[in-house]
Every structure is written in C-alpha cells, then in structure tokens.
Design goal:
The chain is mainly beta. It has a single domain, classed as Beta Barrel (Maltoporin, Chain A). The protein contains 5 helices and 34 strands. The chain has a 22-stranded antiparallel beta barrel. Strands 3-8-9-6-7 form a 5-stranded mixed sheet. Strand 26 and strand 27 form a beta hairpin. The N and C termini lie far apart (49 Å).
Length: 614
C-alpha cells in the first residue's frame, strides 16, 4: 500500500452495510454451490428479503449501497448508468442474468438502468478478477442476477406503489410447484415523469425526461427423476427514456434555443433465454449444460439521427458445459463455454462477429480449517487470438470466529466492437487489457456480529484510451490500491452496520484519479423492529471525484440521508414508505460533454403496498 493510501485510512470515515447470512448459498464465486462461510473471494449476497426491505425503485439505487461499488448516472430513471467495482472501469464488470450475458458488445457495458428489480430473486456480487471462471471482461468482478423461482405451494404475489415525480410501479407474479415441476411467472411495470436530465442554460430543454419500463420473466424446471432436471429461463425488459441533448443552435444572449427542439429518446430492450439440463450421472459426477442467448438492443431518436433512429443490437449466443467431479478430497470442475457475439447496427462495422472458446479446470477444497480454490483457463478468440488466465485462493479458519483468506488472480478485457471497428476512430490492432490482483482478508463471525477487512492491490495494463488526435490506443496503465472495512451488529430488535471503501484508483501515466471514482465512499444503516412496525435509516457518502482524466472537472463530495418505514397491517399484507435524499442535497454523479451536470433526484417519497403470502 502506498503512503497516500495509508494516510486516507486515518481520515474520518462513515460506514456502509453488508448483511452476511451463513445460510446463503453462493454460486458465482466458484460456479459450484458453496456456503457463504466457506467462500474465499470477497462476495456479497443480496437476497429477496433484503431487496424488499430496501424499497428501492431501481437496480442502480440498490447497488449504490453495496460495499466496493460506485455508480454514475446521466440523469433520472432509465438514463445511462455505470457501475464501478473496486475502482475499475464500468466495462470491467461481467453481468449475468441466470448465467447469460446481456451486455452491449459495442459499448462494453450493461444497461443496468433497464433491468427491473421486480424480476429479481437474488443478486450475487463477486469482487476482484474473475476471467478464469467467466472469461473476457471480468477485471473488476461479476454481478450475477437470478430471476424469481418457484417452490412449494402455488402462490400469487403483487405490489403497487406511487411516489414523487409521478412515479408509478406495479409487480405481479405466481410461483410454486406442481408435482415434479416448479415454475415462476412475473410481470412488472415502472412509469415516471422523472426530471430534466441536464440543468441546461437552454431553458427549453429543462423538461421532464420521462421513463417507462415493462418487463416479464419466467422460469420452469422439471425433475425427470431423482438427480436429473431440465428447465428453461427467460427475461424480457422493454424501456423508453426521454433525455436532454445540446441545442443545435441557441441565442448567444438569452441562451434560448433557436432550432426547434427535438424530442430525444431511446428505446431499449434487454432479454435473455436459456434451456438447461442438470444430470447427476453418478455419485461423483454432476453434468450441467446450458444453451441460450442474451440480447442488448437500443434505438435512439435524436437531432441528427439516421432515418428510423440510430440502431445497435448485440446478440450473444452462449453454450456452457460444466462437469463437477466429487473427489475423495475436494471437487474438480472441468468447463467448456462458447461465446459468439454478433453486432447489427445502423453503423457499418468492418467486422461484426467474433467467437470465443473457453476451457477451464478448477479445483475447490474445504477440509477442516482449510479452504483452497485453484483455477486455470485458456481462451481462444477469433478476433485477438489466445489468452491464458489463472487464480489461486486460500483460506484458514483460525478458530470458530476468525478466518483469514488470500488470493491472486489475472484477468483480461476484450476491446469492444466500437474500439476496434467504429468508423473514423476504431483501431483493429488493439490488444486486450490485462490485469493482475492480489488481496487478503481478515473476517470475524459470531451469532450476532460480523466484520471483515480486505486489502487489495490491482494493476491493469494496456488500458484502452484516446490519444491527442482522438485515436483509440492501448496507452495507459492503472494501479488500484484499496482497503474495504465492513461490520454488522444485531441487538435484539436493532440491527446496524456499515462499511467504508478507502481506495486509490490511479492512472499511472497521468498520476491522476480515474474518471468518476473517489478515494473514499461509504454508507451506514440501522433498522429497528417494534411489533408489526419496522423503522430504518441509511446514509451514503462519497468524497470528491473528477469527470475527466486530467482531474480538472470535479464532482463534489456528498452525503445522502434516506429513511424507510414498514407496517404489516394484515396477514400477508404490508405497506412501506421510503424517503430518499431527505436533506435535498444537490450533487452530481457525472457531467455531459459540455461540462453541464446531470441532475440527480432531490428529496422524494415513494409508498408501496405489498401482498406476499408467507
């Protein structure tokens, strides 16, 4: 750790929450189900109960409160958002929905803003390099979203809510099991007037940038016989967001727009579909096959757009065959996965398709006080050739309460189709970005107390950026040193906790902070239960960030205060009120190309009524 980072650690902190439940089963950390207690990697599980308690309207809002995560936003609901894990780029995160990628192969990022919370059963966040298990792009980590599933008796559920900015939200679903078949069907909608994305001097553009989303998901599985299961999964999300853009021509004195205002908007779709088969062929051999496709699609109508709108569509065909072998000591996993990416666009790309074959061997051991995870991967890509990655992790349980872990891993990110082939500035000679990471953790767990400290050092080379002539090049290197502290304490009816991330995400060439990332960010929560009532409060904070690589355009630090109240007024019925940004803090998460700040929500309130059979 650098001296500067050590200095940061002794400044006054606030804290952020992490609930750890030892009964949680984690899949993302090793692609093999593990108890949360046995996982070596730095992992957070957000279960359905926590999602309901949070009462957030969007996935981005929920992720913003998690340790190690920062966000950026280009306005209100539905506008482009980014997620940074441990100071790495937004394109360094692999996002999976039930095992399927749904990111854009042109932008290299995922449209978090168009993924509805109403369809989500659980979220697993894996921090640190994970290319060994998941291939290209997993430099910062993996966020895996699991859609709702069915089990037990058939039950209906639903909720409706209304709040500030004329925000209306509704969800409905049915789930359960009939014989050997389990199923879940859910539909959700969100409609909001929101607010103007940019507080621009062109007052004609200070309008309400509305957003609406309609989504549905389904999951069906059937047990043919004991140990043999087949099923399918699907998710479809369809959204439209209106947004502000620069006025083509404005009056130099009044700043009023001379050119007729254009109704700028983007239609977005994200959907995934897969079929799977899990087969326990012998006592020691479990085979899992999944075949499917993830799609990201957008059509933007703006001043200067082509007839019919600027269109981009990424289709990703994915095949995974995983074989888990239970050995006398430990589990050996042999995995083959294929990823075919295809781009269809109103822009002409020289190359619009690429294919990747990945071969993985991984060994997982939990024996007595020892845990070991060892993985190696070989990727063969039709675009940039072969690449090898590996990881090694070890954990030791000192006593029933204390555990130490350490790991080393490498990862890489493939250049996007925009980086390589976009007309005028694409560079087909780009190399993948490469990273290596080392970290160590100390963790404490008792009946009512949990705490952890994780220190990490990551270097990324061949970072893709722009030279002075705006040509895409492998020009930079990044170094990210960090310390993450978290704790949770339960006292009878009171639960409280938090975590703070102290980091130094630096561009080594410029010796500047990486864009839109802070040295410190944190949150704190507390909730109290009194009979059928539950009261909660939380705060989220960040130090100063910068919107450009030279750190000349700053984004001020901020502290936000939120509160929730839940009341169970009848069997299976409850009402929840959530107040966000109670102090009406003005802050910005990003600036536009002209240096104008994208607006963020002021003080707002949302009330939700839920029907959920127990």
């Amino acid at each position: 750790m650098s001296a500067s980072l050590i200095g940061l650690a002794f400044t006054t902190p606030t804290f952020a929450a992490e609930d750890i439940n030892l009964d949680d089963v984690v899949v993302t950390a090793s692609r093999v189900p593990q108890t949360r207690e046995s996982v070596i990697a730095d992992v957070t599980v957000i279960d359905q109960e926590e999602i309901k308690r949070a009462g957030q309207s969007t996935l981005v809002e929920l992720l913003a409160h998690q340790a190690g995560i920062e966000i950026s936003s280009s306005g209100g609901a539905g506008t482009a958002s980014g997620v940074f894990i441990r100071g790495t780029n937004t394109s360094h995160v692999v996002v999976l929905i039930d095992g399927m990628r749904v990111d854009s192969a042109t932008l290299g990022t995922t449209a978090f803003e168009n993924l509805p919370l109403g369809q989500i059963e659980k979220i697993e966040i894996l921090r640190g390099p994970a290319s060994t298990l998941y291939g290209q792009d997993a430099i910062g980590g993996v966020i895996q979203i699991f859609t709702k599933k069915g089990e037990g008796a058939v039950k209906f559920n639903g909720n409706v809510g209304y709040g500030s900015y004329n925000t209306k939200r509704a969800n409905a679903g049915v789930s359960g099991s009939v014989g050997d078949t389990s199923f879940a069907l859910n539909v959700s909608s969100l409609d909001t007037n929101s607010f103007s994305a940019i507080n621009t001097k062109n007052k004609d553009y200070n309008d309400k940038d509305t957003y609406r989303n309609l989504a549905f998901s389904g999951k069906v599985s059937h047990q043919i016989e004991v140990g043999h299961e087949i099923g399918l999964q699907l998710l479809h999300s369809d959204g439209r967001v209106h947004f502000d853009n620069s006025c083509p021509t404005s009056d130099p004195v009044t700043f009023e727009c001379i050119t007729q205002k254009f109704d700028s908007k983007t239609d977005s779709k994200q959907y995934s579909f897969s079929v799977f088969s899990n087969n326990q062929f012998t006592d020691f051999w479990l085979s899992k096959v999944r075949i499917g496709e993830g799609v990201d699609e957008s059509r933007t109508f703006d001043f200067g757009s082509v007839t019919g709108g600027d269109f981009y569509k990424t289709r990703q065909f994915q095949l995974s065959w995983q074989n888990d072998f239970k050995l006398p000591i430990g589990t050996l996993t042999l995995l083959y996965d294929n990823l075919n990416q295809n781009v269809n666009s109103s822009v002409s790309y020289t190359v619009a398709e690429r294919d990747n074959d990945g071969f993985v061997a991984s060994y997982l051991l939990n024996y007595d006080a020892h845990s070991l995870q060892l993985s190696a991967r070989h990727d063969s890509n039709s675009q940039f050739g072969s690449h090898n990655t590996g990881s090694l992790g070890y954990g030791y349980k000192i006593n029933p309460n204390w555990r130490i872990t350490g790991s080393y891993g490498t990862a890489f990110k493939a250049p996007t189709f925009n980086d390589l082939y976009y007309p005028f500035f694409g560079n087909p000679n780009l190399k993948p970005e490469l990273s290596r990471n080392i970290e160590a953790s100390l963790r404490y767990q008792a009946d009512n107390t949990s705490a952890s400290a994780t220190i990490y050092h990551q270097k990324v080379r061949d970072l893709i950026g722009y030279d002075d002539a705006f040509n895409v090049m492998n020009i930079n290197k990044a170094r990210i040193d960090g310390l993450s502290l978290s704790a949770n304490q339960h006292f009878d009816n009171l639960n409280m906790g938090g975590s703070i991330d102290i980091q130094s995400p630096k561009d080594e060439k410029l010796d500047k902070l990486l864009v839109r990332r802070a040295n410190r960010h944190a949150s704190l929560y507390a909730n109290y239960t009194l009979g059928d009532w539950r009261f909660g409060a939380e705060t989220i904070a960040s130090s100063i960030r910068y919107n450009n690589s030279t750190n000349s355009k700053s984004l001020g630090g901020y502290v936000l205060l939120n509160a929730t109240v839940d009341y169970k007024f009848a069997k299976d019925w409850s009402v929840q009120a959530r107040a966000n940004n109670i102090l009406d803090k003005e802050y910005a998460l990003a600036l536009d190309f002209g240096g104008e700040a994208y607006n963020t929500p002021g003080a707002n309130l949302f009330v939700n009524i839920r029907y959920q059979p127990e």
